[in-house]
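Progress against Task 2.4 (sequence-to-structure conversion) is shown through the following example record, which the project officer requested during the mid-term review.
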Amino acid sequence: MKQLPLRYTVEIANAAAHLFRVTLSVPQPDADGIRLSLPTWLPGSYMIREFAKNIVTLNARQGARKVPLQKQDKQTWHTGKLSADAPLEVVAEIYAWDLSVRCAHLDQTHGFFNGTQMFLSVAGREHVPHEVELIKPAGEDFGDWRVATTLPSARGAARAARPGSFGVYRAEDYDDLVDHPVEMGTFKLLKFTAAGVPHQVAVTGRTRFDEKRLCADLAKICEWQINFFGGVAPFKRYLFLVMAVGEGYGGLEHRASTALLCSRNDLPVPGTTSIDERYRGFLGLCSHEYFHSWNVKRIKPARFLPYRLSEEGYTSLLWVFEGFTSYYDDLFLVRSGLISQADYLGMLAKTIAGVERHSGRTRQSVAESSFDAWIKYYRQDENSPNAIVSYYTKGSLVAAGLDLTIRAVTHGRRSLDDVMLHLWNDYALAGKGVAEGEVPAIIKAATGVDVSREIAAWVEGTNDVPFEKLLKPFGITLERKRGGLLSGLGIKTRAEGNALKLANVLDGGSAQRAGLSAGDELVAIDGLRVTAGNLETILIRYDKGNTFEMTCFRRDELMTAKVRFEVPRMQECSLMRIPRASAAINKLRDDWLGREATD
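Structure tokens generated for the chain above:
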């Protein structure tokens, strides 16, 4: 017997209490009962988040009969015996007060959710169509609310939308259902077209910004990326969901949309034409999540085919799927002409310095970082700088190193661009995933260049990418510089009210040798009170090699330590183009970064 679509209804139970009500209707349930479950994580954010913890109440009925739900584990329920003649209705009240791109948030100003937090799956029916009706809340306070989502409207739905409904939407299966986040409220809705594809930007939050400029800049990025992959987008329309707040940052990719969290100050200021660091960072975030439409949403690790959302999905390849994306996100800003080559090289230099600043890169390979994302990268603590490396940032440097290597060896005839196109055409379009350990063979097939030695050193090992050597054929020099005064102690600090605490104590630094630890509250240096505002003012009066007495609290115990003030570490770097480089060098660099309009 053909299985009918599952039907969900999403209502606002109590906006002030941050409660959604989600009703699942299961037609023709199995007589032996059905098993319901909620995911423990969502694709793109590799951490077990236990979405079931947000279920406040969960009840089931068949007609007038209450159906008991037997909980089997932290995220799974079973109904027991059922009548096959009547639909089963399961009603969940879900708490939504996580203002992030990963979960759900609801108050009187707006509602946002990912399907992984809202929609129970029905075992054995994950592959049938799923319909969702979104109910508009009643009352004057919600009169102007509307919905933004890439879930397609259901045509010929089994049951028509009720009066006051936002509409009925349809997903092909459960994976499709949870890959279209939903925003409802009084957002600004902007529109633009890129490569013939309609795009929308829904901006939630109190903010004034240059709407026309934002659309124009995003259109350049999107058009470049679509053309990069052959000129045909893998979606019929695309949606940027932007939550603008006082301070915040984050993004999460989906198959035809992205959810973004930013500061309202990250958006372009009306009347300005330059791109400041904050706006550039926001454009880079948009570029990153958009590139994921290809790289990870469709070009996938084999171990993500299919996703298993009830347990961790282990892969050592996140350095490819997040790292390569982190490389291309800023690269498209310079290639599309939004920023200059000098701007881009400054951003690359900052990434190099940021990775090399911490000793964790010498202890964990980027392949290990990928595999252990579930327990390390997404669960960082005060010792993380000494213990781990980021598959985002180190992965982006590996991508840059591979790109420079391929371009130099082939004299610009091949590049990492060819690798991405090969992955798109021969893997994504063929429904094939990238196997563990397969990347060197893929690169050789796409470019003819054997990079197995580089990958062994930079990815499976802990070697730094040798940018001084790799950038030389492109007419670019790398200069290293010493960091600030705190690097002479090997510490990072954070202010907590009037207190100044050690956030991190770095390996090999004089603070660690003196016995200081993360969490210690700094009180005084040589009897002078220390605050967040005067620490560097005090340190600047000491010569390198001097020893001073540092007083601090560890919990409620006062302690002192003799600390040696050492020469600040080499923690910064800069990249500069060689003046009057040859035409061949300039061409190699321009083929990589794009020719500037002023050239």
